[in-house]
């Protein structure tokens, strides 16, 4: 006896939910982020994700933002509905297994951008004393983060530092150490990863030193782009657009002009001024518009969760429930106004920009470091690079067997969202704004996120073949023949 059409439909949905699907890795090509399979430019439409702030990272309790699958499932469903394709996670514990959370975000087409440092002592370069904080045990931990996340296809990149250079004083001493840890990470990745994962730096948008920081980190000491001490990506945390600003008032015109000749991708690793409150995010059409996208590669809104700094899109409660804020609705409206298909299908534009040679003439401020002699690898680190670290954490994508969110989530108007769930995407898709949104004035939503758009229309071969078999069975059950 052949299965009924309803049975086939249910079987296909179960197959989609439990298949180990994967997004396509993102690579750099000159000044562009590029889908490694389709070759199309990739624009980051993302959010910063650090629930609990720095306290959300607690090694003694084995807790970090990617350690609880139920939390990740809830937040992935809300992010898929919002339309984001990337998250930035600032602090992770490499000793924790992240398979469930990484797989959930992978299933909905959301990439992960990961900082390798943490606010704890010995787990970052200390801007006040960079030389004494750059040693083997610190570098070993950064390599452990690489090991923990290298096998997830939705690991987009690592950040070697975040705002470590934040004024002229730190601009005098820190830059060589940022190049040093970048070199170490890239050399480790080259030797121990089966794909090239970009390593970037997230800069403070301090205009006095911004361009000097960018030039110091993007230039080459070897005469070509292969220099391992130069960053693969340069990002900046920019809050210059507040409220109903303009392209010129916010200084976006200056940023575009300044970065036109960049040899590495540039994007906003944080954006979203919180004045006025709630935010209206009028910078979104500009950031993803025709004046900016030829130069910049999108950005990440700061931040997903409401913390004491009042930048949140969602309030997370201690009982696991969540409340959407007006900022979430405003951002979703702005994202949905974008032509995401066009945004993610543009041709590579800056693939041939060559890095400048590292010379003192690149640096414009007299107090900024002009010495491009990079610190030597600390004692013991070369052995780690050559042989790999001990007790390597191992991650892998696993089937996502549960798609329904069990925690209560309320709309910004107080109505409870019914049937909230993730909607796993076919193998070659990343999530993007859909042009549709859940009705903030209604008490229910559909059980899946709005249909994601993608630059590649076909599903993965294995999934498509399985689908063909199931549909063929359905046709036999109904006495029909389908041409597939």
From TrEMBL:
Residues 433-455 have a biased composition (Low complexity). Gene3D superfamilies: Glycosidases. Splits internally a 1,3-beta-glucan molecule and transfers the newly generated reducing end (the donor) to the non-reducing end of another 1,3-beta-glucan molecule (the acceptor) forming a 1,3-beta linkage, resulting in the elongation of 1,3-beta-glucan chains in the cell wall. PANTHER family: 1,3-BETA-GLUCANOSYLTRANSFERASE GAS1, 1,3-BETA-GLUCANOSYLTRANSFERASE GAS3-RELATED. The lineage of its organism: Eukaryota, Fungi, Dikarya, Ascomycota, Pezizomycotina. Residues 1-22 form the signal peptide. One of its GO terms (molecular function) is 1,3-beta-glucanosyltransferase activity. This is 1,3-beta-glucanosyltransferase.
């Amino acid at each position: 006896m052949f299965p009924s059409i309803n049975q086939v439909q249910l079987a296909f949905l179960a197959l989609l939910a439990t298949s180990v699907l994967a997004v396509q890795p993102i690579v750099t090509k000159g000044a562009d982020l590029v889908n490694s399979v389709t070759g199309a430019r990739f624009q980051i439409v993302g959010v910063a994700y650090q629930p609990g702030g720095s306290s959300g990272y607690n090694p003694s309790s084995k807790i970090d933002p990617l350690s609880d699958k139920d939390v990740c499932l809830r937040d992935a469903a809300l992010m898929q509905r919002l339309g984001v394709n990337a998250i930035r996670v600032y602090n992770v514990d490499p000793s924790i297994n992240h398979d469930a959370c990484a797989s959930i975000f992978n299933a909905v087409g959301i990439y992960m951008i990961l900082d390798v440092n943490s606010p704890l002592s010995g787990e970052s370069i200390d801007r006040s004393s960079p030389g004494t904080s750059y040693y083997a045990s610190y570098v070993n931990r950064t390599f452990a983060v690489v090991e923990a996340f290298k096998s997830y296809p939705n690991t987009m990149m690592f950040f070697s530092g975040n705002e470590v250079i934040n004024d002229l004083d730190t601009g005098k001493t820190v830059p060589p150490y940022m190049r040093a840890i970048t070199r170490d990470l890239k050399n480790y990745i080259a030797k121990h990863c089966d794909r090239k994962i970009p390593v970037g730096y997230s800069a403070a948008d301090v205009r006095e030193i911004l361009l000097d920081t960018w030039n110091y980190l993007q230039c080459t000491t070897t005469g070509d782009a292969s220099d391992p001490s130069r960053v693969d990506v340069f990002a900046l945390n920019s809050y210059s657009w507040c409220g109903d600003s303009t392209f010129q008032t916010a200084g976006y015109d200056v940023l575009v002009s300044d970065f036109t000749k960049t040899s590495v991708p540039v994007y906003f690793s944080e954006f979203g001024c919180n004045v006025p409150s709630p935010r209206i995010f009028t910078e979104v059409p500009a950031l993803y518009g025709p004046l900016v996208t030829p130069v910049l590669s999108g950005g990440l809104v700061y931040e997903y969760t409401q913390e004491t700094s009042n930048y949140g899109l969602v309030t997370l409660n201690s009982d696991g429930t969540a409340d959407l804020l007006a900022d979430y609705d405003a951002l979703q409206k702005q994202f949905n106004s974008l032509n995401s298909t066009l945004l993610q299908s543009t041709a590579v534009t800056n693939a041939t920009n060559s890095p400048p040679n590292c010379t003192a003439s690149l640096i414009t401020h007299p107090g900024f470091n002009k010495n491009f002699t990079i610190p030597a690898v600390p004692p013991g680190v070369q052995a780690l690079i050559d042989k790999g670290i001990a007790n390597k954490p191992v991650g892998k994508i696993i089937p996502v067997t549960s798609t329904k969110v069990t925690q209560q989530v309320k709309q910004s108007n107080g109505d409870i969202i019914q049937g909230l769930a993730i909607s796993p995407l076919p193998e070659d898709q990343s999530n993007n704004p859909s042009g549709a949104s859940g009705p903030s004035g209604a008490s229910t939503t559909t059980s899946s996120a709005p249909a994601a758009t993608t630059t590649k229309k076909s599903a993965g071969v294995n999934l498509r073949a399985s689908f063909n078999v199931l549909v063929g069975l359905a046709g036999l059950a109904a006495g029909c023949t389908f041409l597939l």
